[in-house]
Amino acid sequence: MLLPRFSTLLCLAGLTAVPAVNAYDGDENVKSIPLRTHSLSAPYLDSDFQSRWFDFGGDTVIRADKYIRLTSDRPSQQGWIFSRVPLTATNWEIEFEFQIHGEGNLHGDGFAMWLTKQRATQGPVFGSTDNFEGLGIFFDTYKNNRPGTSFPYVMAMMGDGKTSYDQAHDGKANELAGCSARGLRTTSVPTKARLTYFQDKSLTLDLQYKSEGTWTNCFTLTSPETNIAIPSVAYLGFSAETGELSDNHDIISVKAQNLYNVAGSKGTGGSGPPRSADRPYRKPKKQSGSWSWFLFKVFFFFAAVRGGYDWMDRLPVQDKVFSVLDERVVDFCGLMRSGPMSESEMVKIKTLSVILYLLA
């Protein structure tokens, strides 16, 4: 079923069952935890065509059993999806499957992946806003004016909120790193990208488009040699754009994971359980007998109340009550000192008297 054009739709994330903790490829000490809030999989939407995690807009079309189509193979289209909550993990990995395809030999313009402070704003940079603050990964399929570069071309740009994207030269003035990816469009294998980030350490982009299961490194950046400071609060998004030339730009799935180091070291894995650098982490000892002592005190309290209640039963109520309670307590109970008291009032007085007597 094709859903019509959406101005705002929410996407259903994390529908498939996933393990709570996974081993991270390449490092036994680094583990991963799935981030359902930033993941996407079919059917994308719930029965009400809504979800709490993503917004959709522009020319985005959703086919629940197949894809999220940011733009169709038609001229002058723009579409986007953005997470509703920011990605606040310090170390993470985002792997997504996509497909770029269309009819004819001429096609454009491409799509982008975003991790920015801004969200859900349509604009001229692959369907999203210019002068953004954060990271943009551009999958450019149309060559404007960049001699010596093969297209499609994949590049990263770190926006400062002031600098515009160099549209006329396919982002040459803004490029942080990039690679040519000939064969990325209309390939026979699932096309995927995997972006891995360790805060203040490294940023890596790998692509799968040559053969299934074979990943090709596009770039790896390290700090402090390169500015890879992604905002600590950034929204995950995807957008696409067509001009006079067009293509289908589809997002098939998105899988986001939080990465952490189980050893808790200062290596590339991030942080583990809180502990001192020179003292091993120890579990606090359980206090033995705490529950037994608590139950004993409860039993003793009620036994004392019961005994006191029976003892007071043998005394004149009026005389005993006012030797323990003052006028304020009586007023609080809604009782008067003069006049007869009902049986329920006597019970209230006697009970409060015993409690206050024991606490005195």
UniProtKB/TrEMBL annotation:
GO cellular component, one term: COPII-coated ER to Golgi transport vesicle
Domain of life assignment: Eukaryota
Keywords carried by this UniProt record: Membrane, Signal, Transmembrane, Transmembrane helix
One matching Pfam family: Lectin_leg-like
Gene Ontology molecular-function annotations: D-mannose binding
Principal localisation: membrane
Any Gene Ontology biological process: endoplasmic reticulum to Golgi vesicle-mediated transport
Record protein name field: Lectin family integral membrane protein, putative (AFU_orthologue AFUA_2G12180)
Species the sequence originates in: Emericella nidulans (strain FGSC A4 / ATCC 38163 / CBS 112.46 / NRRL 194 / M139) (Aspergillus nidulans)
